[in-house]
Amino acid sequence: MATLRQQLEVIANRHRAVIKVSHERLDNLSDAQLRWAPDEKTWSIALILDHLIKVHTSTSGPFMKALLPAPLAGDERTKELSYSFIDRKFVQLLSPGARFKLPVPKLYVPVVHNGPAHGLVTHFQEELDAFTVILEYADEKKLKGLKVLSPAGSLKPSIIAYLDATVQHDRYHWIQIETLLRHGQFPKS
Fold this sequence. Notes:
This protein is mainly α. The protein has six helices and no strands. It is elongated, with a radius of gyration of 17 Å.
């Protein structure tokens, strides 16, 4: 049985891995590389980043709104917070290897930007840094019973599951980015 502190540490470690690899793999890409896709049905790295930015910007506020009034964690940090059936399904559907591909809610559909695509890399990394602060704040708060309404619909998972799902969703899309980077036709610069 994992304690809440251990649960949050697993989420934070996965999140830190995304931050690290985003700097290693994205910082030096050209606009042409960021905008490249092998076909019209596949999102480019720029589109994936735009999608992830939209997810993070729309959820950061609700996360903090739920966390701000929450009392300090106290002895809750030494106990496990179990996921409900809905929580488990929510995390599972947004994780790498999900069996079903969910339709992208209109709120999160990416758009092509005309400006420098590298601005998306910077913005994405800023959103990852902001999420780090949210995770640190969550570690100090009592999370049991806290739920967060999804900006994309009526689903209201527990905050711990939603934090977990957010990181899993980032990892899911990171696999897509890695696939693009390894594609035989990916531009050299």
